[in-house]
């Protein structure tokens, strides 16, 4: 029979991983150091693997400990979300959320579904517009919260994720093998377009702009139809796409940042709850949603 993982043990385990020592973790979880040591012995007994390498006063995770850490964070988060659903006073109100369609299409369905389960009485009104426009709308208090692509670190009030931009092609076509590569790009002024063209120009690869649109669905359609390759965030890849790398003759593009911008109006509890939920979800998101196997 498979043993159960105790949430209290996992919370202590996470504290040790983040603090780097049993002593500091004991202060954080309000336990004695001996109690923390006993908890970790119990956790190692449950998983039947050593979780820490002792290095002087530092406690580093073993490979198995590092594997468990991701599960621990997800289990603790789900536990806290479930308990909060039934014990916290229910939030009410409305939040005007803005985001580019790239994120709305691939990230928001799952994020908002989970937020609705925790805060079912909060109304979220979503406005899908480009990042630059959303930043200006936030300054005019026309949105309460915006999830944007950052051109500069100062664009956002909070950076929630650093994400690689990757070349993608159709898994069923071979347009990427042409001598002159047709590329599908976003609108002029978009940081993804700038990064993609710079990578191509720096590498000397022959290309032409085959398709351009401010709408991510149009760019993705060109890729899936085998008409062009495109540079998109890894986390918004669609089924039927595959990543192109140096082994395919495509240069690395680099990373960009995703951030949150707050409107100038009152920061309500509903706004803060949604912002925290988005930040937490994106920080822990490791794989493309619904990406092709």
Describe the structure.
Helix content is 42%, strand content 24%. Helix 2 (22-29) crosses helix 3. By secondary structure, the chain is an alpha/beta fold. The longest helix is centred in the N-terminal third of the chain and has 25 residues, at 63-87. It is globular and about 65 Å long. The chain folds into three domains: 7-87, Winged helix-like DNA-binding domain superfamily/Winged helix DNA-binding domain (Arc Repressor Mutant, subunit A), CATH 1.10.10; 93-162 and 257-283, D-Maltodextrin-Binding Protein, domain 2; 164-254, Periplasmic binding protein-like II (D-Maltodextrin-Binding Protein, domain 2). The protein has helices spanning 7-19, 22-29, 33-47, 63-87, 101-106, 108-118, 131-139, 191-203, 216-224, 269-283; strands spanning 52-55, 58-61, 93-99, 122-128, 145-150, 158-170, 181-185, 207-212, 229-233, 241-244, 254-262.
Query: How many discrete structural domains?
Result: 3
> What series of H and E elements makes up the topology?
HHHEEHEHHEHEEEHEHEEEH
Shape: globular
Instruction: Provide the gyration radius in Å.
Output: 22 Å
Average residue pLDDT:
89
Strand content: 15-25%
Which structural class fits the helix and strand makeup? alpha/beta
CATH class of the largest domain: Alpha Beta
Helix content: 40-55%
The total strand number stands at: 11
Q: Catalogue the unreliable spans.
A: 287-293
Reported CATH architecture of the largest domain: 3-Layer(aba) Sandwich
In whole angstroms, how far apart are the ends? 31 Å
Task: Give the number of helices.
Answer: 10
- Mind describing the biggest β-sheet? 9 strands, mixed
